[in-house]
Amino acid sequence: AILAAVEIYKKERHASRVVFWVPAYFCNEALEPLRSRCPWLHLNFYDIEPDLKPCWDSIRPSSAETTGIVSLLMIVHFFGFPNSAKEAMDFAREHGMALIEDSAHVLEWIPETGLGDFVIFSPHKLLAIPQGAFLTSRHQSHRAPVNQSVGSPGIVDWRWLAKRLMQRLLVGFGVSWHQMNRAVNGSVHWNDHGSGGLGNGDCSDFSLKLLDRARGSLQEIKKIRRRNYEILLERLGDLKSCRILFPDLPQQVCPYAFALLADGPLDRIVSRLNGVGVPASRWPDLAPEVMAQGGSFGRTIAIYEKLFLLPVHQSICEKQARRMADLVSSAIGPA
Fold it and tell me: Which of 121, 132, 218, 308 has the fewest Cβ atoms within 10 Å of its own Cβ atom?
């Protein structure tokens, strides 16, 4: 969907080159389609503040318009929480840029979001569907579907079905899916890119049917996710080696995950939690350009080296959420 937004904007503006400003705290794998399919795209990264808001001073758009070159700015509503959309829109307008809002972690429209020229949703990250993303636009000329094809379940759908079946079987036998997944894949990183793949506009008929069925359950899903977040919020507020990134849960927010910042070695903390059955994960790898220029992205890298995530998804019942909170508290230790 991000790829589609960039291509649409380039075509509309008859541009030969697009300068794309992306937060340095962004999954590198999600950028690969842009790198491989857009030789005319120049990726620029900007640093973020400790609360994940943009560091505006690190965004340096061109002061003069150049024929054939246009600029795009992207902000991310991390973990379902609104993130400076109004400020970003004002900044973009001041500097002649278009704004993309990445709402992939957002379940539905909420206040303080949806102001950008393009808004992206990825329902497969919050709902039980294998793939699919939506690109919306404020411009009438963008209303037509973008690179969408539907049909019978494809390989992504079958892999998703097999994975969910395996999860159910392992849980039924009392085996931790997350521990098994880590043992097989050797990774403690959160799978944020999803199964569909960024830039792949295809969405099977199977996924669309599952999405249509889920539409009537959105408020219940939101209610459960908020309940699980609030349980973790209540029980983990006194941890001595971690602090909660978002200690307040606004009324309209449906949280994607529960983010904490570790004061100690992150890998050791995540491994300790995984060892007691808590599915804690790190954020996926950052772009190599960001890691290679650590001095320019010091705040981002500091967050990357501290932040880990706990799940709050709707398949977790209240008892499981409380159990997870107790295990985290025991493994890390209260104040």
Answer: 218
Q: Which residues pair with 281 in a beta bridge?
A: 309
The H or E element containing residue 87 is: helix 85-94
Torsion angle of alpha carbons 29, 31, 129, 218, nearest 10°? 120
User: Tokens at residue 24, please?
Assistant: 């340095």
Residue 170 sits at the vertex; the CA angle it makes with 166 and 175, to the nearest 5 degrees, is: 145
Q: What is the DSSP string of 259-285?
A: EEEESS-HHHHHHHHHHTT---EEPPP
**Separation of alpha carbons 171 and 238, rounded Å:** 30
307: enclosing H helix or E strand: strand 307-310
Distance, CA of 103 to chain centre: 8
For the chain, how far is it from start to end, CA to CA, in angstroms?
Answer: 44
C-alpha 9/C-alpha 118 separation (Å) is 9
Q: How far apart are CA 254 and CA 79, in angstroms?
A: 9
Contact between 303 and 261 (Cβ < 8 Å): yes
What is d(CA 184, CA 147) in angstroms, rounded to the nearest whole number? 34
| pTM recorded for the entire structure | 0.82
Residue identified by tokens 């981002």 is 300
Q: Which residues of 12-22 are buried (b: 16+ CB within 10 A; e: fewer)?
A: eeebeebbbbb
The span from the CA of 281 to the CA of 191, in Å, is: 9
Angle between helices 177-185 and 266-275 (to 10 degrees): 130
The mean per-residue pLDDT over the stretch 314-329 comes to 94
> Mean pLDDT lowest for which of 12-26, 209-223, 254-268?
209-223
